[in-house]
Amino acid sequence: MSLGTAPTSTGTRGETVPTVPPADMAVDTADVNALLDRGRSLAAPVLRAAVDRLAPPMDTVSAYHFGWIDAAGNPAAGDGGKAVRPALALLSAEAAGAAPEQGVPGAVAVELVHNFSLLHDDLMDGDEQRRHRDTVWKVHGPAQAILVGDALFALANEVLLELGTAEAGRATRRLTSATRKLIDGQAQDISFEHRESVTVEECLTMEGNKTGALLACASSIGAVLGGADDRTADLLESYGHHLGLAFQAVDDLLGIWGDPGSTGKQTWSDLRQRKKSLPVVAALAADNAASRRLGELLAADAKSNDFETFSEEEFATRAALIEESGGREWTSQEARRQHAVAVEALAGVDMQEEVRAQFVALADFVVVRER
Q1: Which among 114, 136, 262, 309 is most buried, taking Cβ atoms within 10 Å?
Q2: pLDDT class for 305, splitting at 50, 70, 90?
């Protein structure tokens, strides 16, 4: 895959900045926030009821993870995340001509699987902060993070299968397939950390599994529960898959250059974890002076025993080289490209134009977000 001509440095020299692509895209924030709020409000009671089924202490550990209580067990109004997946599940029900409420079990199931993955990912990556507070493994220990993650995955299947309908069975098959791909993606991501070389194509495949699969499921599961045929569900799934690739490309940009005040993570977060994220892989493939210097530094980093003692300046230098190599700009353009492909997939779905416009608005939101 050609990376094109590497752009000249923008002068940020690796400084964290909040802008993500495309800066000139207008997003109807009020409309998107209404969709996200609807997803939260309709899914939240069912999600809480599902979590309440868990045996102690997993119920309270889950409640902490979702931001409903603090570490001491007191009620809290924590940041529950962006809620893009629940919003997509409800919207996909409407795409099938059903009421948004018909997609609620799908919204809850997808949210449970997403949080199962977050609990395990935080532990595997050693992340100590999520949504501006300590992660579950940091507060309650690794064992609880593993057990609660497993329990949330089991609950996701229960929420769907207890509906007892043919549509629920179809929806569950899509969810389990998406979960397997998600796990494949996480395994690929971890393996990349121990490899000197990863291609852009390999990185995109990994991100399509790790992020694209569940967003694809979220974009189609409500439609399945609403009685849509496989053709409609597959087109919506394609929208979600490419939206997931755009989403992850933006995440990769934020993982290096995001504002910690917005992301809730450390500066240079992905560089600290030696992640072979898309900007890094694209930069290394660029074959220019900055790219070659970056490769030398990263190869030395892989052999270093004191990587965790690196200064902010050392991480900033690596971020600047990624930018000078063209990795930042290429990833920005890839986010735009995947966004366009996602929107194109909607053309084959027969749905109300208002619903179509809301799908597009959510896609726009994904590529201009700052966290």
Answers
A1: 136
A2: low
| Tokens, residue 232 | 């409609």
Identity of the residue numbered 188 = Q
Rounded Cα distance between 299 and 288, Å, is: 16
* CATH of span 49-368: 1.10.600.10
Neighbours of 168 (CB within 10 A): 19
CA angle 218, 277, 13 (to 5 degrees): 125
| 237-275 confidence digits (pLDDT tens) | 999 999 999 999 999 999 999 888 776 677 788 898 888
| Tokens linked to 222 | 């409500």
* Confidence class for position 309, pLDDT limits 50, 70, 90: confident
Q: How many whole angstroms separate alpha carbon 115 and alpha carbon 217? A: 15
What is the DSSP code string of 187-207? HHHHHHTT-S---HHHHHHHH
Per-residue pLDDT at 1: 39
pTM exceeds 0.85 for this model: yes
CA 172 vs. chain centroid, Å, equals: 21
Classify 130 as helix, strand or coil. strand
User: How far apart are the C-alpha atoms of 168 and 121, rounded to whole Å?
Assistant: 28
- Report which DSSP code applies to 309: G
